[in-house]
Design brief:
Oligomer: single chain
Number of strands: 9
Radius of gyration: 20 Å
Distance between the termini: 27 Å
Helix content: 40-55%
Number of helices: 14
């Protein structure tokens, strides 16, 4: 399964480059437009040699439209043919493991061999919303039970509960009981040390949320590598990091765009979540001294500017962390800025330009029609 995990560095990029999509909804825009942008990004990423496109689970946040990763991934699968698609991630304590096994078994059946299942233990929202999702206010129990939930989910994916287990006669379908035993590789996601240690001990690939927990990146990656034990999945550690990065033709415009994301995060952190503001709204916002300090601290961990400046920043981050893959999230108010950023980053690294025919729905990698369609 390691080939399904390790990517290939293309062009002059030092490691594989991938996309983390938060499906952001800007002020004056709609969720339908945000989802259409996700399709546009996925097709651009496929055409330009990005390795994978992940979407993240969030709830009760007006500025994102990614509450249902499996639904979005099915839609993206229908519009792409080669790029890996996955969750970055599904928040496992919010769901019954059997449900996730069924959803991702379905995705694997729809897009065989190119689905990733990234799992997190955080709620992906505030406590009240998490309680509504889980029908319980004992939220710590879900997080504490994460290793057990992970084990249960893995057994459903593999259809290998031992004889005598209460679930031994339950099958996640689509799944191995119906045919070949292929299934999505499981990744653990985290922003602290818990999942890093667990991923290492289980020999699983690990994804760290550098884009919102930069101070913990290197300690978590060190813990993952120190804890790593070879497994049937991986014989050596494989870690990617999510990084906020935005390139623009004009570096000043890049600053205007990333300021919208910083203001959006400020509002979220202070209990005022909303649609992603426009650049004009962000520029006119009357920041207090404390708010300005938060914004500048946040932007210090965002790589933005011209394409060359972004490449330099990404290369430096990769050297500092030793990450095996960089997963770029380009947050901005409008879809055009996000799409252009991924294109500029592909250009500055010389990523390959594949033909539209080769990447189009209904075509195999050589551009021929897919059998059965």
């Amino acid at each position: 399964m390691s080939d399904a995990i390790r990517g290939e560095a293309r062009g002059t990029a030092p490691v594989p480059l991938s996309v983390l999509d938060l499906v952001t909804v800007g002020s004056g825009r709609t969720a339908s437009q945000a989802l259409a942008t996700s399709v546009e990004i996925s097709r651009l990423a496929e055409r330009r040699g990005y390795h994978r496109h992940w979407v993240a689970e969030h709830h009760s946040m007006p500025g994102v439209a990614s509450s249902s990763p499996a639904v979005i991934l099915a839609h993206l699968a229908a519009h792409t043919r080669r790029i890996r698609l996955g969750s970055g991630g599904v928040m496992l304590p919010n769901h019954a493991p059997l449900v996730i096994a069924e959803q991702f078994g379905t995705l694997e059946a729809l897009a065989p061999g190119r689905v990733d299942l990234g799992l997190g233990r955080a709620p992906g929202t505030d406590g009240a919303t998490a309680a509504a999702l889980r029908r319980s206010d004992r939220l710590h129990e879900g997080a504490d039970d994460f290793p057990q939930q992970l084990s249960e989910l893995t057994r459903f994916l593999d259809d290998d509960f031992p004889d005598g287990h209460p679930y031994a006669r339950i099958h996640a379908v689509p799944g191995p009981v119906q045919g070949p035993k292929g299934r999505p590789p499981v990744w653990l996601l985290g922003s602290s040390g818990f999942s890093a240690r667990l991923a290492g001990s289980l020999g699983l690939p690990f994804a760290f949320a550098h884009h919102f927990s930069a101070q913990n990146t290197i300690p978590a990656l060190d813990l993952y590598r120190d804890s790593f034990r070879p497994s049937a999945v991986l014989d050596a550690p494989y870690a990617l990091i999510g990084v906020a990065a935005l390139a623009a033709d004009d570096p000043k415009e890049a600053r205007r765009q990333v300021l919208t994301g910083a203001l959006s995060m400020l509002r979220l952190r202070t209990g005022r979540p909303g649609l992603v503001p426009t650049p004009e709204e962000a520029e006119a916002y009357p920041f207090s001294a404390a708010e300005r300090e938060f914004v500048e601290s946040w932007l210090a961990n965002v790589v933005y500017g011209s394409a060359d400046e972004v490449r330099e920043g990404l290369d430096g981050l990769r050297k500092r962390t030793g990450a095996d893959e960089l997963m770029i999230t380009g947050n901005a108010h409008g879809g055009d800025a996000r799409v252009r950023s991924y294109e500029l980053i592909a250009d500055t690294y010389g990523l390959p330009e594949l033909s539209d025919a080769a990447a189009a729905p209904g075509a195999d990698p050589a551009g021929a029609p897919v059998a059965g369609e």
